[in-house]
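step: validate -> pass
step: tokenize input -> pass
step: predict -> running
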Amino acid sequence: IRRRDSLLRKANLMQMWYHQASREWLEAREGFLTASQIDDLWPLTTTGRRRPIVEEDYIKALFNSTEINYDSVNSYGPAARGHILEPYALEELRKMRTDPSNIFYWDDAVIYKGGSSIAFSSDGLDIPQPETGVLFNVSELPTINEVFEVKSYRAAKHYQTFAEGKFAIERRQVATQMYICEEATIGSLVLYNPRLIKGALFLTQWTREDLEEDLAIIGEIDKQFTETKIKYSNAFVSRKGMSETDILKELQSLSIN
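step: predict -> pass
step: emit ->
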């Protein structure tokens, strides 16, 4: 009984955090390699050891990039918490800045650059998000000088990530943004946990020079992924029938009737 009650409390806590992204945002990502997928193709472990990446890994990434799962627009628990706290983290960062006017929250937006197969969804930039649109070519936006990546970890990981200072995965995500935003000179990682009275926000920053090796690896991943996409282009035929979501809705309506 005690274990059951504990699970129920956890379930209720998870339900407190719920986030829904837009379908347009999900569709805009189709065909692009995102930061999380780049991590799967990274030729180094988090400790810096080499790991083999073969063509099959790129083929998997290619097919994953074309799958649109509309269920994934909904997130719960820690994942939803991370999304919801992003604007609060940036607002807290503004209070620390002498000039807070160049920190803008971005939501449900995909940014890419011409000739690249990579795109990213920004947590924040030093330019405001356009009022309309979801997919943006970086060349059509004002110059971006600083990119922001927000992480809202639990207390232990929040402190550990900052104290150890390794930031392997977080650093790659910042580097991915700077790879697309070629004029950006600063990449800022914001670690934020509003449950903490002290140390609720930690800020780590990298220059383009700091990320030179990471940017070179991302460029090679971009090249290999683009070549794989061209090689297997005949394997992709546009769907003419119902989507999985449409099929589920139809089955649900039949079961009701």
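step: describe -> The first helix runs from residue 2 to 16.
step: cleanup -> pass
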